[in-house]
Design brief:
Length: 79
């Protein structure tokens, strides 16, 4: 796993902290980890509900480009 650092505004932090707590997550980091997992599923699973959600954020073009990367990685793994 590669660590990343993000900076957010205090009001965003407060909203995310509240959302995490109300959703049963023990921390903002756990909530963000879950969100990133859903982003990854939107990239790697063509039929996943996350794909439509992700397309609303980044557009269909970047997802299509990611499809090529995922297909290339799967092809390499099967050799």
């Amino acid at each position: 796993m590669k660590p990343i650092t993000i900076s957010i505004e205090p009001d965003e932090h407060a909203r995310l902290r509240r959302l995490a707590a109300l959703s049963g997550y023990t921390s903002i980091e756990n909530l963000i980890d879950r969100l990133l997992d859903h982003v990854d599923q939107g990239i790697t699973r063509p039929g996943a509900w996350e794909r439509d959600w992700l397309a609303q954020i980044v557009g269909p073009g970047p997802l299509a480009a990611c499809d090529e990367l995922v297909s290339d990685a799967e092809a390499s793994a099967n050799r």
